[in-house]
Structures are given as C-alpha cells and as structure tokens.
Amino acid sequence: MAKTSRKKSANKGTVSKIRVGDSPVHGQGVFAIVDIARGEVVERCPYIVIDDDDLQSENRLNDYLFTSPDAKTDYLVVMGLGMLYNHSNDANSEWEIDDDNRFVRFTALRDIKAGDEIFQNYGEEYWKTREK
Known about the structure:
This protein is mainly beta. The protein is 4% helix and 38% strand. The protein has one domain (16-128): SET domain (Beta-clip-like), CATH 2.170.270.10. It is globular, with a radius of gyration of 15 Å. Mean pLDDT is 80; it is low at 1-6 and 8-14.
C-alpha cells in the first residue's frame, strides 16, 4: 500500500490536509491535499470577535465573516483557511463553533478525495444579510 505524504505544520505537530487554490466555482477555495474520511476534522480555526458597531455596512470583509450564534450583532473573523471555503448547497463539509475553546471546527460530511474542493453551506442567514 502506497504511503500518503502529509506536510507537517509548525502548529503543535499537526498535519496539513488542505491548501488554498484557484476555484472553478469562485475566486479561491480550499482543496484537500490528502484523502479525508467522513467525520474527520478538516481544520480547527481560532477566531476573534468583532462587534457590529465596528463594521461599516459596505465592507468587503463582511463577505467572509461568520455570524456568532450567541449574539447576532457579533461577527467572527475565522483564522486559518476558515474564511476561504466556498459555498455549495451540496456541501461536503460542515462547520461548528466551539465557543468554550474559541475555534471553528470544519468536519467532512462525506469522504473527500485529494484534489477535491471542500465546500460549506453558508446557510440561509448568510444570504439574507446580502439581500438588498
């Protein structure tokens, strides 16, 4: 059986499973560099909180922010590659906010092959905030 090479990161000996690349869907996206099994954590990203008052209504950063489940007036700036996952209604991964440890966990919903783009479903709330 062939060995899969995985690039070690400087962050606590973790193994990188993903990379950023040009997406055929939109701009840049996140891609698997190794096979990722259903249920496997793709990435854990720390975040910082920005209050709604700190954002201008027409701010390009708004397209990349996550809405806090605790306070709809707070937004999360997700570090790592967390803000680069593209949307799909048929997403192959999901995200979950861990407020106790202040990170967002991205997990595979089904097996993802090396080279595949990894998608999130942004949810209805995201699209409602973009209606004009």
